[in-house]
Write a structure and sequence with these properties.
Belongs to the amino acid-polyamine-organocation (APC) superfamily. Keywords: Cell membrane, Disulfide bond, Membrane, Phosphoprotein, Transmembrane, Transmembrane helix, Transport. One of its GO terms (molecular function) is L-amino acid transmembrane transporter activity. The strands form 2 sheets. A two-stranded antiparallel sheet has the order 1-4. Helix content is about 65%, strand content about 0%. Helix 5 crosses helix 16, helix 8 crosses helix 15 and helix 12 crosses helix 13. With about 525 residues, the chain is an all-alpha fold. It contains 17 helices and 4 strands. The protein has a single domain, classed as Amino acid/polyamine transporter I, CATH 1.20.1740.10.
């Protein structure tokens, strides 16, 4: 797909296959040079392709399902800490939804013009790679580097860690569940989700569709409960308005971090574009349906929270939905932990689904070991990529705490969200003839870029944290990997033999653009 900084246009065929000689004709070399691949069906009729099994409903479900995860049940506390007041907290929730919507519109233009899986990686390589032989591919590689080891595994890890916490909480009453129990549950669930995604694309998307409906049911319960309290005149908490509003820009930015975590996943559909049916129409449609729906739901849910619970109750709880359920549902309060667990499971499933495709595309572009670009010969699923993301996720689960991982993730992610939206502006100037089935007004990427700068710079200046230093250190480490292994193409001995053994064990084969 990506070779020497060039991308195929949307008019070219996007199906991919094994060449008849079983060897890669990809001109881009990577860390692991490609060995002769397994090729059980070399004829063109049986060419290896990523199955186009994601329709409009599944695409909307993927967006909604990955966005509505643990965030809406955990983040209200962090947003309230940052905003200080009920009114400003609701404004932050709305602005987070607006920023996610504007960002998704930029991604829709890029995704329609560059209909390739890989999300930010595909757009960064298309925009910058040809500009300079040495530094041009660096933005895409740094995104891939951070996405592989921080952003994508971190997203999945946060979701399953939240699931582990809520799943174990009912068994320990008022006590906090032991960390080892939470992490064992978390790792078990992550491995199970990986098995589902490695087994069948259709099964993974069906689970996503079903659990998305379950999440909407949870949203409806909280919303209806909140409006019922308003109808009977219990509006003391929500009527506090702007009382205790924060005026500290750093606190507000950290409030945005928590809110944006709840919205994260809005770009997941761009990672599976090659499996999307009619991507030119369904990509922008799914975005315009999915993200405003989530924003509307989040506003209603927070109104439901603030109608039933005081600010003090929210600030003292790490599981806002559980406390809400105890106050409103009585003996049926057990429903809320169940909904939270199902919500986290669905979000983690969708995130791992899209993360596996990202690693596949990055490896195919020469920025990862080539074996990660292979798919199963029969199931057509990116098994090596899924295994890689799962292993990194398990490491993050074992090493990090949930709160630190959220801040580390959000700070890193918005560096590249802003940089990707900058691609819209650059491509408008450098590739004016590029066919764009969907275009956004130029002020849209400008607003997203300004928002990203605020989110990145303000906390560093006013409230520096060790997590921000970790992010920059990881960027530097990416450069240390890029120059010897990518730019100068340093190779490891016996890697061809290792790749061949992995192919035989996993029954995987490479795919290449026609």
């Amino acid at each position: 797909m990506v070779a020497e900084g060039k991308m195929t246009s949307e008019s070219e065929k996007t199906s991919e296959k094994i060449p008849e000689n079983s060897k890669s004709d990809d001109k881009t070399e990577d860390i692991i040079p490609e060995k002769q691949a397994l090729n059980p069906t070399p004829d063109k009729q049986h060419a290896m392709v990523m199955e186009k099994s994601v329709g409009l409903f599944s695409a909307v479900a993927l967006i909604v399902g990955t966005m509505i995860g643990s965030g809406i049940f955990i983040s209200p506390k962090g947003v309230l800490i940052g905003g200080g007041s009920v009114a400003l907290s609701l404004i932050i929730w709305f602005l987070c939804g607006l920023l996610a919507t504007l960002g998704s519109l930029c991604y829709a233009e890029l995704g329609a013009a560059i209909p390739k899986s890989g999300g930010e990686y595909a757009y960064l390589i298309h925009t910058f790679a040809a500009s300079h032989p040495t530094w041009g591919p660096v933005p895409a590689f740094l995104f891939a580097w951070l996405a592989m080891f921080v952003i994508r595994p971190g997203m999945v890890s946060i979701m399953v860690m939240s699931l582990g916490t809520y799943a174990s909480k009912p068994f320990y009453g008022d006590c906090e569940p032991p960390v080892v129990v939470v992490k064992l549950i978390t790792i078990t669930v992550l491995v199970f989700i990986a098995f589902i995604n490695a087994t069948s694309v259709k099964f993974a998307t069906k689970i996503q569709n079903v659990l998305t409906i379950t999440k909407i049911a949870a949203i409806i319960i909280i919303t209806v409960g909140g409006f019922y309290y308003m109808a009977i005149g219990k509006v003391d908490f929500i009527s506090e308005g702007f009382l205790d509003t924060s005026v500290n820009p750093s606190d507000i930015a950290l409030g945005f971090y928590n809110g944006l975590w709840a919205y994260d996943g809005w770009n997941n559909l761009n990672f599976v574009t090659e499996e999307l049916k009619d991507p030119f129409k369904n990509l922008p449609r799914a975005i315009m349906i999915g993200i405003p729906t989530v924003t509307f739901c989040y506003i209603l849910v927070n109104i439901g929270y603030f109608t039933v619970m005081s600010k003090e109750e929210i600030l003292m709880s790490n599981a806002v939905a559980v406390v809400w359920g105890k106050k409103v549902l009585g003996v049926m309060a057990w429903i809320m932990p169940v909904f939270v667990v199902l919500s986290c499971f669905g979000a983690a499933n969708g995130s791992l689904f899209s993360s596996g495709r990202l690693n596949l595309v990055v490896a195919r572009g020469g920025h990862l070991v080539k074996a990660l670009s292979f798919i199963h010969a029969k199931r057509r699923t990116p098994i090596p990529s899924i295994i890689f993301t799962t292993v990194v996720g398990i490491f993050l689960i074992m090493v990090f705490e949930l709160g630190n991982l959220i801040e580390f993730f959000s700070f890193t992610a918005w560096i590249f969200h802003g940089l990707t939206c900058l691609c819209v502006i650059i491509l408008r100037r450098t590739q004016k003839d590029l066919r764009r089935p969907y275009r956004v007004p130029i002020f849209v990427p400008v607003l997203v870029i300004l928002g990203s700068i605020y989110l990145i710079v303000t906390p560093i200046i006013l409230n520096p944290r060790i997590e921000f230093l970790y992010a920059f250190m990881f960027v530097i480490s990416g450069l240390l990997v890029y120059f010897p292994f990518i730019h100068y193409k340093l190779r490891f001995p016996y890697i061809n033999e290792i790749t061949e053994v992995v192919q035989k064990i996993l029954l995987i084969a490479p795919i290449h653009a026609e």
